[in-house]
Design goal:
599 residues, alpha+beta, Phosphoenolpyruvate Carboxykinase, domain 1, Phosphoenolpyruvate Carboxykinase, domain 3, Phosphoenolpyruvate Carboxykinase, domain 2, 3 domains, eight-stranded mixed beta sheet, six-stranded mixed beta sheet, 16 helices, binds guanosine-5'-triphosphate, binds sulfopyruvate, binds manganese (II) ion
Length: 599
């Protein structure tokens, strides 16, 4: 195979590649240069093997569809490990294994696992290349699907090696689909290992990632959840910065004043949609900076600056339409990889919730399908991988190496009852309490989450690379450092349902109405009502112009159900008890204050 890459002289990298080659025994080793020629060549190879399907070049230029194995459609939280010497350092919310034991098990699996395959080496940068906040990783993988996705999701290739230089450091990320080929054996279209052989392992003390057995998204594109959240959160704690599961957006008011907002919602709970918001209120403008991950450092002026470490969006497909998220629809018009969507009769893609109905085609499992089939045509966690720069509302500062100053943090989750539309924390500590106690209903983003409702603190439950109680303490300490320059904290719930099971709040573009109230609050321009949950708007405080919503619905959305909240208290207490002595005293104090406010 052609190799246009100049050879690196980085000693650590050369030694690691040689060690992995010896262990995994691939047929060939290939250094990725990140070029378009390389992308096209690998796509061609996957078309020829039957793994990829090329979509109609007029309707969807330079775009491809992949179908995963039916067992490999999402992250697997039960198979995800934080492996530290002491179990306590991983904490009660993470799966833990002793590093030596886990490595022994995984070495057994890795031994010869790339037989019959090519081993690809992908140097990548999370964050604009050379940014003081960026980090370099190198992923070794035997999946060409991973290579093409990494081309979109990160900055990849020779330019990264140039920054790495001879002695530069990087985070080693090893990945294998876990399906060696015997001599002459025909490959499957989506090779992967059975669930009990899948391991998504993190060694934060060594800053190393070992992933085995899955080809899917967060399990396999190791720059994303593994590096940019699990390993980065642990580095951030050590170094005094933050790595969060947050979108970043810029909102500009009619007077031209800019606000930067970072929002943490659990997987499949609305980050991509909010990041690409099209305001429905006059004169307000929204621009997208990131849709999934935010790295934030305190700048010289004492404010908190955020960058999006990613270069693309790996977004939830179902539900995305011109009605709900027109900017996403425009972003994915070309140069996009689709996974587990319907292939329509005219060679385009479709999913449930798209604007027009589908006449039928081939479903995500590869079977003939029509809407009458009685099953979903696209998997609920079908995704698109698309370059961020194609988003029509991408912010001119999205690659600014210094980031953008954050004014507002938003937490939230998917709650069909109890939690009102919006509230504002009384203080930073109260905001940390709101983040820590966030709960959300299960979605399709993780395969093995069975509980209907679970606590997902800061939307980081599956992504925090160390003890969650230490993470909370880190948040308190960041607040101390930021002082009066700390972002103001809000909590939202777009997902309240009526007794008929319908969403009560229109959501999407109309969420701008809630963001407007937040901006006015931080300017001390909007009034509010002090409630046990925090400051909340009265109906008159929200801009509901040109919105068809009944008085009773909006009252219901802004209601504080004291009895229901009192019922939540024992559950919060029980949850906090899991963290034992590590639970920060300031968290206990917040629970006490909530109890007092509820009376
Ligand atoms: P990850 O990529 O998994 O981290 O998810 P995400 O937080 O980016 O979720 P995304 O924005 O893709 O939303 C997931 C689902 O929630 C989609 O089906 C959306 O249509 C739906 N959704 C997003 N925003 C809203 C909203 O304001 N109201 C309602 N009712 N649904 C929403
Ligand atoms: C999530 O689950 O939060 C995602 C998708 O953003 S994945 O990259 O698969 O983790
Ligand atoms: Mn996510």
């Amino acid at each position: 195979m052609q190799n246009t890459l100049e050879k690196t002289e980085n000693k650590k990298l050369l030694a690691w590649v040689s060690e992995i080659e010896t262990m995994c025994k691939p047929n060939a080793v290939y250094w990725c240069d990140g070029s378009k020629e390389e992308y096209d060549r690998l796509m061609k190879q996957m078309l020829d093997s039957g793994m990829a399907t090329k979509l109609d070049s007029q309707k969807r230029p330079n775009s491809y569809l992949f179908r995963s194995h039916p067992s490999d459609v999402a992250r697997v939280e039960d198979r995800t490990y934080i492996s530290t010497k002491n179990k306590e350092d991983a904490g009660p919310t993470n799966n833990w294994k002793d590093p030596q034991e886990l490595k022994e098990t995984m070495k057994g699996l890795y031994n010869g696992c790339m037989k019959g395959r090519t081993m690809y080496i992908i140097p990548f940068s999370m964050g604009p290349i050379g940014s003081p906040i960026a980090k370099i990783g190198v992923e070794i993988t035997d999946s060409p699907y991973v290579v093409v996705n990494m081309h979109i999701m990160a900055r990849v290739g020779q330019k990264v090696l140039n920054v790495l230089g001879k002695d530069g450091d990087f985070i080693p990320c090893l990945h294998s689909v876990g399906a060696p080929l015997k001599e002459g054996q025909q490959d499957s279209n989506w090779p992967c290992a059975p669930i009990e052989q899948k391991y998504i392992s993190h060694f934060p003390e060594e800053k190393t990632i070992w992933s085995y057995g899955s080809g899917y998204g967060g399990n396999a594109l190791l720059g994303k959840k593994c590096l940019a959240l699990r390993i980065a959160s642990s580095i951030a704690k050590e170094e005094g910065w933050m790595a969060e599961h947050m979108l970043i957006l810029r909102l500009t008011n009619p007077q031209g004043k800019k606000y930067h907002i970072a929002a943490a919602f659990p997987s499949a709970c609305g980050k991509t949609n909010l990041a690409m918001l099209q305001p429905t209120i006059e004169g307000w403008k929204c621009e997208c900076i990131g849709d999934d991950i935010s790295w934030m450092k305190i700048g010289q002026d004492g404010r908190l600056y955020a960058i999006n470490p990613e270069a693309g969006f790996f977004g939830v497909a179902p539900g995305t339409s011109y009605k709900s998220n027109p900017m996403a629809m425009d972003t994915i018009r070309e140069n996009t990889i689709f996974t587990n969507c319907v292939l329509t009769k005219d060679n385009d893609i479709w999913w449930e919730g798209m604007d027009n109905p589908c006449e039928g085609g081939i479903d995500w499992k590869g079977n003939p399908w029509t809407p009458e089939s009685g099953t979903d045509g696209a998997h609920a966690n079908a995704r698109f991988t698309t370059p961020a720069k194609q988003c029509p509302t991408i912010c001119s500062d999205w690659e600014n190496p210094n980031g953008v100053p954050i004014d507002i943090f938003i937490f939230g989750g998917r709650r069909s009852s109890v939690v009102p539309l919006v509230s504002q924390a009384y203080s930073w500590d109260h905001g940390v309490f709101l983040g820590a106690t966030s709960a959300s209903e299960a979605t399709a983003a993780a395969l093995d989450v069975k509980s209907k409702l679970r606590r997902d603190p800061f939307a980081m439950l599956p992504f925090c690379g160390y003890n969650m109680a230490d993470y909370w303490q880190h948040w308190f300490e960041m607040g101390d450092k930021l002082g009066d320059k700390a972002p103001k904290v809000f909590y939202v719930n777009w997902f309240r349902k009526s007794s008929e099971g319908k969403f009560m709040w229109p959501g999407f573009g109309d969420n701008s109405r809630v963001l407007k109230w937040m901006c006015e609050r931080i300017e001390n321009k909007a009034s509010s009502n002090e409630t046990p949950l925090g400051y909340m708007p009265l109906v008159k405080d929200l801009d509901l112009s040109n919105l068809d919503i009944s008085e009773s619905t909006i009252n219901e959305l802004l209601k504080v159900d004291k009895e229901a909240w009192k019922n939540e208290l024992p559950d919060i207490e029980e949850y906090f008890a899991k963290f034992g002595d590590k639970l920060p005293a300031r968290m206990k104090a917040q629970l006490k204050e909530l109890r007092n406010r509820l009376g």
